[in-house]
Amino acid sequence: MSEKREHQTFHVGFKAFIADGEKLLILQDGEGLWELPGGRTEKQEIFKPSHEILARETAEELGEQFEYTPGPIFHAWIRKPNELNEYKDKKDFCLFLVGIRCTYKSGDVVLSPEHTGFRWITKDEIESLLFENTYKEAIEKYFENSL
């Protein structure tokens, strides 16, 4: 007898690995944890290119004046609920994240109310920071493949 299986449902998000030389931009959320700029797709964006969705999210989080050049998809991973994030009570919530390699062009970071800080980090700073779940591994992968 076979067991009944269900497909997992996911939200989909795009995250920007924005580099300025050897440094990578990260944002601090309201809980003090670090993550990458970007966010979830909205229902009406289903037919839009990923770079347009990412541009909307980064404009919201970094300001319209912040400019970067998007590149190829770099990495994909699943963010699961844990005790440190807002989804801790939603045990079946999963977010499928697609990371896009980007290059900083110009403009200052002007944070939205959903973030409290930002930093440009090097590989050597990763261990000293507390990341939102799964971001540490994604950022380590970025630096392993960038240097």
Structural notes for this entry:
The protein has one domain (about 10-145): Nucleoside Triphosphate Pyrophosphohydrolase, CATH 3.90.79.10. The protein is about 15% helix and about 35% strand. It is built from two helices and seven strands, in the order ββββαβββα. The chain has helices at about 50-60, 135-145; strands spanning about 10-20, 25-30, 35, 40, 65-80, 95-105, 115-120. Strands 1, 2, 3, 4, 5, 6 and 7 form a seven-stranded mixed beta sheet that branches. Strand 2 (about 25-30) and strand 3 form a beta hairpin. The protein starts with 10 loop residues before the first strand and ends with a helix.
Would you spell out the secondary-structure blueprint of this structure?
Blueprint lengths: L10 E10 L2 E7 L4 E2 L2 E3 L9 H13 L4 E13 L15 E12 L8 E7 L13 H10 L3
Parallel strand pairs: 1-6
Antiparallel strand pairs: 1-2, 1-4, 2-3, 2-7, 5-6
Structural class: alpha+beta
Strand-residue proportion: 35-45%
* Count of discrete structural domains: 1
CATH superfamily: Nucleoside Triphosphate Pyrophosphohydrolase
